[in-house]
What we know:
Elements: H1 29-36, E1 63-64, E2 71-77, H2 82-92, E3 97-102, H3 105-112, E4 126-130, H4 138-141, E5 144-147, E6 154-158, E7 160-161, H5 166-169, H6 171-179, E8 183-185, E9 194-195, E10 201-202, E11 207-211, H7 213-216, E12 222-223, E13 226-227, H8 233-244, E14 248-252, E15 267-271, E16 274-279, H9 287-300, E17 310-315, E18 338-340, E19 343-348, H10 353-364, E20 369-374, E21 393-396
Parallel strand pairs: 2-3, 3-4, 6-8, 7-9, 11-14, 16-17, 19-20
Antiparallel strand pairs: 1-5, 2-21, 5-6, 10-11, 12-13, 15-16, 18-19
Amino acid sequence: KHILTLSLCFLALSLSAQTVVPIANDVRLEEKLAIEKLMVDGSLNFNVSTRGIETPPEFSQLRTAAEWEEIEVLTIAWEGFPCILKQIVAASVSECRVVVFTESPKSTSNYLTSESCGGALSLDNVDIVQADLNSIWMRDYGANTVYGSWNDDRILVDWIYNRPRPDDDVIPDLLADHMGLESYSTTAEPYELMNTGGNWMSDGFGTAFESELILDQNQGGSTWWTDYPNHTTEEIESILQDFMGVHTLINMPKLPYDGINHIDMHMKLLDESTLLVSEYPEGVADGPQINANIDYVLSNYTTKWGTPFKVVRIPSPPELNDGYPDVGGWYQSYTASVFINNTVIVPTYYEPYDSIALSIYKELLPGYNIVPIDCDGIENLSALSGAIHNITHSVSVEDPLIISHLPLPDTE
């Protein structure tokens, strides 16, 4: 059940918007074999040399936006899972503009306006953009919003995608062209940096969280399809400072059973001081390493105000009938949610875990519209190592208003 059979090579997977053979978040055997058939002399000739502006932005005060800040655009890639994607569009169009990248614009438009999966949607706030695609995992290869002058001079910043999916890797350039924004990329020496959006969380004030995957893939060595950039930890931190204004990079050890090593599958920043963290039964699966990582964070880092982070646990369900990842079950997590202004979309799986998770979100985020979307049903996104956060990305607004204040406990 964990093997995804591909009938065509990964560059020609899509026949229409509804007949896509989805690619997993991680690179599985069938995709690897299909790609190797395209390789010449053992090389994919993966070219990332023409990617936007490849030198650091020359602005006075760079600031990477946090996920909960106001957004202008939500982006998705129409590659399989049409009902899940349509539900995301339905929950988002009243909050922001939705940009849908697709290989089949007419088919995608027809599905969105059909009665399938919840009824017809208006396309008044939807941009359908023709694009070649490899996969649905927009979070991982999408662009990040950075402000050049704290709250002004909005730009996009992109990294080298850590997958051999060249069509996906250039989506940030297409998005920048579509929105008329400047796109910067860490794709040329001495600034080349490989990274993935599912392994990135910003507090909006210069602190970012990652697993040590970013170190593994930027300190020399190679994988079967490319050589990794070769930097010291200090050089990696410097590149993130120069392109994104990040002055504090919190690296945590990878989890033993998370095959993609993306932190969004077990934790989420809900605001500048609150960490929502997956909880497992004592001693089970990735629970011990998650607990050790959170202890490390609490012992060595504080919020922007110098106060301890508030940690809230949210139980992760085992795969129904198959258990937790340490016995082969799928990785199912409620932290892989997404903010869309006043709405938060939360992946769901089955009861009673869903009700517990949704009640935690509602308690932590009063005033938000909490929208559940099933990721374990007929369109089983969790089987491919992902959920809602992994298949969405966003562009923050051009002129944001930021009110940042330390929460006042026991105060109305």
